[in-house]
């Protein structure tokens, strides 16, 4: 089980009015998934059939004070995969180990435009490139943290988070203790201004890793997004730039650039995107984003969750859309993407990748998903194909 919740948080939650006197909501969801991985670096393929169940209790103690506790359990009917727990090391990795733990436990105070949350919580900043919950994995990433949010106007949002600990997706069953959780002394600041389809933001993430000093970084950047809409404003774009440097007691010295350029065009049938993402490297060290939702970026085959020392250039094309809009259950959601990967230093071709997915809703609470990733290696890693079949069910939204 994950490390204990800070005693002060638990005591505060126990001191709340009892459930008979305060509104109490029960929340739950379940996700059944089969993942198949064929990686040429291994003789044998990986097969994983896992079920994740979450259940939570939400107390609304007063109009301003809320508490939430959520448990999470993952079981495997087919476990022919390397989950990082010491078994099946002769097969490719699938990051969904069997586990049971407290996923979230927090207190939240809200008064008008100000909100404060303390305890184990889910965090997601912007597109989760730097800080996210890794929601794709069965066991998500959560943080022991104190977060503050202030909206001085309807168009402006300011966020600050102090990070004490990151609970990783590998769970407490991981053989490597650094894959279970990381002790941090981190400060995340994010400011965003929104006006119509425009969103402009800036951020500073100062993360001291108390377990691995060489992972301590300071990242400062800015992001602009223009939303596209078919018919009214078909053109959209996302632009982002950041600089990452060594921080705190990091024994290394580096300064790496990050940028993203992604124009988009919305039509009646699909939204088309062309992107160029740059993660700088110098041949000895590269920009890293260990607290991000990494599966969302640089291809679903997850070959670049750790940026190669020579850096990474990801140039991609993607299309997303809906089919059968008249269906009572909702539209079919599809995505197709192509990536070409190169090194920042030297320009070596790493490989290329195709991704495709199809989501099928069966109603407000049921959704099926089929998804595939096919990576063809040039000079980095080995050819890899992944296939997912998934079914999700969630309690009614409150």
Give a description of the structure.
This protein is an all-beta fold. It has a single domain (7-394), classed as Beta Barrel (Porin), CATH 2.40.160.10. It contains one helix and 18 strands. The protein has one helix at 7-14; strands at residues 24-39, 46-60, 65-80, 99-111, 114-121, 142-153, 156-167, 181-195, 198-209, 217-226, 235-246, 255-266, 271-279, 312-323, 332-342, 349-361, 366-377, 384-394. It has an 18-stranded antiparallel β-barrel. The longest helix has 8 residues, at 7-14. It is globular and about 60 Å long. The model has no long low-confidence stretch (mean pLDDT 93). Keywords: Signal. Residues 24-154 form the Alginate export domain. Residues 1-22 form the signal peptide.
Features:
398 residues; 18-stranded antiparallel β-barrel; Porin; Alginate export domain-containing protein; mainly beta; globular
Q: Write the CATH homologous superfamily.
A: Porin
Number of E strands: 18
Q: N-to-C terminal Cα separation, in Å? A: 29 Å
CATH topology: Porin
Q: Percent helix among the residues?
A: under 10%
